[in-house]
Amino acid sequence: MTFKRKDLLGIRELEVEEINAILDSADSFKEISTRAIKKVPTLRGKTVINFFFEPSTRTRTSFEIAAKRLSADTINISASNSSVTKGETLIDTARNLEAMAPNAIVIRHPSPGAPHQLAKLIDASIINAGDGAHEHPTQALLDAFTIREQKGRIAGLQVAIIGDIMHSRVARSNAHLLTKLGAHVRVSGPRTLIPPFYDRLIEESEGSLTVCDRIEDAIASSDVVMMLRIQRERMSEAYFPSLKEYSVQYGLTLRRLELAAPDCIVMHPGPVNRGIEISSEVADGTRSLILDQVTNGVAVRMAILFLMVGTEGE
Amino acid sequence: MKLLIKGGRILDPSQQMDRTADLLAEDGMVSSIEDSISIDDAEIFDARGLIVAPGFIDLHVHLREPGDEYKETIASGAAAAAAGGFTSVCAMPNTKPVNDNASVTRFIIDKAREAGLARVYPIGAITRESKGEELAEMAEMKQAGAVAVSDDGRPVMNNQVMRHAMEYARDHRLVVVDHCQDLNLSAGGVMNEGRYSTLLGLKGMSGAAEESHVARDIMLAELTGARVHIAHVSTAGSIELVRRAKAKRMAVTCEVTPHHLALTDMAVVGFDTNTKMSPPLRSEDDRSALIEAVRDGTIDAIATDHAPHHSDEKMLDYDHAPSGVVGLETALGVAVTMLHQAAGIALARIVEMLTVGPARAFSLHGGTLTVGSPADITVFDPEREWAVNPQRFKSKSRNTPFAGMRLNGTVIATFLSGRKVFHIE
User: Fold this and answer.
1) CA atoms within 13 A on the CB side of A183
2) Is this model's pTM higher than 0.90 or not?
3) Contact: B320, A12; criterion CB under 8 Å
4) Rounded Cα distance, A70 and A67, in Å
5) With an 8 Å Cβ cutoff, are B316 and A90 in contact?
6) ipTM of model
7) What is the mean pLDDT of residues A157-179?
8) Average pLDDT over every residue of B68-72
9) What angle do CA A224, A225, A228 make, to 5 degrees?
10) Closest to B253 measured CA to CA, from B235, B233, B279, B268
11) 3-state SS assignment for residue B145
């Protein structure tokens, strides 16, 4: 097996072989979800804790279904943001979790690095399900899986990522992953929402990462356009004037999509703000893979749980 | 009471002295420095092979008392100072209550006298409760013993209030010390804004957030004629502003911390909360600019910004962990290792920034071994290597980014008014 890590914390530190091992493994797990009885005994007797410090429906559900289809016992713990601000230390969190003897802990936390800090304190495998604006490795893996499934490859593809680049862990993890696999990634959005040195985010790789001033330049002849969710609270922080102006200036419409390659696919990590970052015609159109992403999320997370927990002790 | 320090290399930049000699202190004062002194009734300290310097002065420490005694007390902070070779420390006013009136100032001085391990000079608040609104009673605090005023950590945002503070402080011969940070520009920031904040997804504080306030303070100093001291400069841009002000012979001084000279924002990769401080660790370009500013004399003082926090607090996630690191007990080692050994800066220059430089910035006594001055003396070995073990700190807190690091430059003994307050085990 080419995946030997205790934890999956981010894409940045992964080798290309490890990424491919997960994607290849997901190929075989995808079939299970198409069966009448969608369950295999692979993780029987193993415990997976979903520990979410931020509200999340789709990622948590996706992990839960993935674990259940592998016959693992799953427990969901939601910690409200208030327990974070109350200042429960990570060591206390860690000790409480350890006491339940889990095999894997899937963690989402609003503060970048929290899963990394916990991983140093806990023997169980930690899977990062999103840490602030830092990384969301399983989302990037399911996005790559979806692209590979559609296009047959990732190397050499032009991928546009549009929107709130600054606050997006999805964009960061995808920038790392897609460039490692040789894609050429162009990001764009309002300059207020693109952090400095973004083009220097990635290590040396086969691919490339470029920041475009105009979203049209990012979309032009793209094979993949990935739109990011814009959060309303960014408006009150003066990142842009209004949702209306945002949708006109930065939203993906059929007209803008015409700039892309004819067989371009459209993706979105969800949940979608219809009519704001993406028009309904595009979101529901034939080129949209938004629901495929959700389906593939289960397969990719099954593969990750299998690779990290299923081979323990062998 | 007599103390005879024999055979050391006496390094005293206040009088351009660098000679191997004996130093005699009587009744707490330096009484003579001669090639060889013989006297029967003195305590002898053998300093052969060691450097004998004026006691170090730290313009910027947080002693946490009153209010947060679980982090540090004046006594434990003074013990940490002595262990780090510091005989004088200036205590920032952000205690609970804030040192914004003479009764708190007197409390600090009394506590320090009880501890008897270091001179503690209180810095008073600029505004009541450091809220940035009404001026604190500066003149009364000065009479009680405050040496400067600052709203450190809660910088005065209102430019008009700052202007009045400078005018008033000038009349009362108080230095205005500013932690330069535009709180709007830096809102939510937990590290330097740059490649690493982008990589880690942590909110950054731009250099401009610091520099815009440095520029403001220099403009207001020019307008008011006040003496302004820029605390912990951390960016190349701030250095440039201070350098220009000094070229115009303005009364502007500045300090730099050992951690900003030694580390960059790359240290945040890994999310160790002991790399979180304000101002944050900056880029390598900024660090290089700070070292050049040490070399060319722009920097007046090395100050630690010693900021003790309990390890429970530092165990929080990066966003929520408090800012600050302890520094008194690692300052000399970091300075010798990073400035002398790595950057080739003379030991005399390092000693200058630890002694006469800070003394002049705040018009403090000390920082010199001239005959007749207090026998505050630090004896150190610039070669001797040691490994930083936070468990052995005299400070109550352990929050250092240098844990495990091997440093050269070890404090051997510290004397306060001729009395030994620290001797290495």
Assistant:
1) 28
2) yes
3) no
4) 5
5) yes
6) 0.94
7) 98
8) 96
9) 140
10) B233
11) coil
- Selection from A225, A305, A288, A278 nearest residue A49 by Cα: A305
pLDDT confidence tier of residue A79, bands split at 50, 70 and 90:
confident
Q: Report chain B's mean pLDDT, rounded to a whole number.
A: 97
Find the angle CA(B370)-CA(B373)-CA(B378) to the nearest 5 degrees: 80
What pLDDT, in 10s, does the model give residues B26-67? 999 999 999 999 999 999 999 999 999 999 999 999 999 999
Token readout for A257 is 């999509």
Q: Is B336's pLDDT higher than 80?
A: yes
Could you tell me which residues come within 8 angstroms of residue B296 by beta carbon, excluding any fewer than 6 positions away?
Answer: B243
Coil/strand/helix, residue B361: helix
pLDDT band of residue A314 (cuts 50, 70, 90) is very low
What's chain A's length in residues?
Answer: 314
Distance, in angstroms, between B315 CA and closest chain A CA? 6
Give Cβ neighbours of residue B303 (< 8 Å, ≥ 6 apart): B58, B59, B60, B61, B231, B232, B255, B256, B257, B358
CA B235 to chain centre: 17
Is B381 catalytic? The answer is no
Q: In B206-248, where do the E strands start and end?
A: 228-230
Phi, psi dihedrals of residue B409, rounded to the nearest 5°: 105, 100
**Residue B373: helix, strand or coil by DSSP?**
coil
Is beta strand B175-178 parallel, antiparallel or unpaired with respect to B119-124? unpaired
Q: What is the DSSP string of A107-121?
A: EEESSTTHHHHHHTT
pLDDT, tens digit (0-9, with 9 covering 90-100), for A188-228? 999 999 999 999 999 888 999 999 999 999 999 999 999 99
Which among B354, B395, B393 is positioned nearest to B59, based on CA atoms? Answer: B354
Q: Which two tokens stand for residue B301?
A: 């003082």
List, in sequence order, every residue forming a beta bridge with B407; answer none if it has no partner: B386
Q: Which site among B192, B272, B283, B317 would you substitute to test the A interface, given the most A Cβ atoms closer than 10 Å to its Cβ? A: B317
Phi, psi of A16 (to 5 degrees): -55, -40
Q: With contact defined as beta carbons under 8 Å apart, do B402 and B388 qualify? A: yes
What pLDDT digit, counting tens, does each position of B137-176 carry? 999 999 999 999 999 999 999 999 999 999 999 999 999 9
CB contact under 8 A, A90 and B201: no
In chain B, the N- to C-terminal Cα span, in Å, equals: 24
Which residue among A111, A113, A201 places its CB closest to the CB of B198? A201
Tokens of A2: 């080419």
Query: Considering chain A, what percentage of its residues have pLDDT values greater than 90?
Result: 82
Residue A253: partners with Cβ closer than 8 Å, 6 or more residues away = A279, A281, A282
- Give per-residue pLDDT as tens, B374-401: 999 999 999 999 999 999 999 999 999 9
Kindly write down the DSSP assignment for every residue of A260-300, as one continuous string. Answer: S-TT-EEE--S---BTTTB-HHHHTSTTB-HHHHHHHHHHH
The active-site residue out of B305, B312, B376, B381 is B305
